[in-house]
Amino acid sequence: MIHRSIARALAIAATLLAACGEALAGAEGAAPVSGRKEEASYRNGTYTAEGLYGGLPSRLTVTLTLAADRIQAVSVRTHATDPTSLDYQRRFAEAVPALVKGRPIADVQISKLAGSSVTPDGFNEALARIREQARRR
Predict the structure, then answer these.
(1) What's the CA angle centered on 70, arms 98 and 25, to 5 degrees?
(2) Predicted confidence band at 55 (pLDDT cuts at 50, 70, 90)?
(3) Parent domain of 87
(4) How far apart are CA 87 and CA 42, in angstroms?
(5) Does 13 map to a domain?
(6) Is 79 a member of any domain?
(7) Selection from 99, 93, 83 nearest residue 119 by Cα
(8) Is 70 part of any domain?
(9) Is 81 contained in some domain?
């Protein structure tokens, strides 16, 4: 009886750990860009770029600080005037630092985050521009 209980508890724990790993791998948030690991080094510094997305288009301004190819700080400035868009942008801007701070810039690609599925497109565009600005040539 005890052995079955332990075996069942271990099976449940393994299932939960696997589910957590899948969720962290890309269901919502930051995930490495598959098959696109960049080998370049980036210059330390603070960079700013704008990213456009959506049909209006909407835009975000992203400022981040790099050191040793890792994101040390990030902020997202919102520009929306439509209340619904502004809400998505603000929630996104509040959530993104926890996902990207400390990560290598080459590995960051944001997917759906804080209920927003298109705002990350603007962030990713700005991030691509920042990578280009910071790339060591």
Answers:
(1) 55
(2) confident
(3) 32-134
(4) 33
(5) no
(6) yes
(7) 93
(8) yes
(9) yes
